[in-house]
Design goal:
The chain is built from 3 helices and 6 strands, in the order ββββββααα. By secondary structure, it is an alpha+beta fold. It has one domain. A 4-stranded antiparallel β-sheet has the order 1-2-5-6. It is globular. The chain starts with 7 loop residues before the first strand and ends with a helix. About 25% of the residues are buried.
Length: about 130
């Protein structure tokens, strides 16, 4: 039986949307299923609802959700790890929500969150307690 890959999961709060999706990326660029050392990795994206009028969000025209600039990064989270992905959504949201609502850019925050992985996710979850 083959493992089930996460296609896409989302978390939406207060006009901020965090998405983790598998778009074919692996450790060395495109995922290579023939390479046993490669793993399908999830990409994170952060969007702002247009009512927030965040100046760092790309103008989406008529679209309700606008992509935040510099907020799309491949993570170190396997697309097979469903529980880790759910935890990662929470961590990412907790880190970016305040800044997106306030109208800030989130490039540096997202760069650091791109290192999220199964082995370090719990450290991020307990950091805020």
């Amino acid at each position: 039986m083959s493992k089930k890959i996460i296609d896409e999961i989302k978390l939406i709060e207060n006009g901020v949307r965090v998405t983790l999706s598998w778009i074919g990326e692996g450790w060395c660029g495109d995922y290579d299923s023939g390479n046993d050392s490669d793993t399908p990795l999830l990409r994170m994206d952060v969007d702002a609802h247009k009512r927030l009028k965040n100046p760092y969000a790309e103008d989406g025209g008529r679209r309700i959700w606008q992509s935040m600039n510099d907020a799309s990064y491949c993570t170190a989270i396997s697309a097979y790890h469903h529980k880790t992905a759910q935890k990662a959504l929470r961590v990412i949201m907790d880190e970016v929500k305040y800044h997106v609502i306030r109208g800030d850019g989130i490039k540096r925050i997202c760069e650091s969150l791109s290192w999220l992985s199964k082995s370090n996710i719990n450290k991020h979850l307990t950091k805020k307690k």
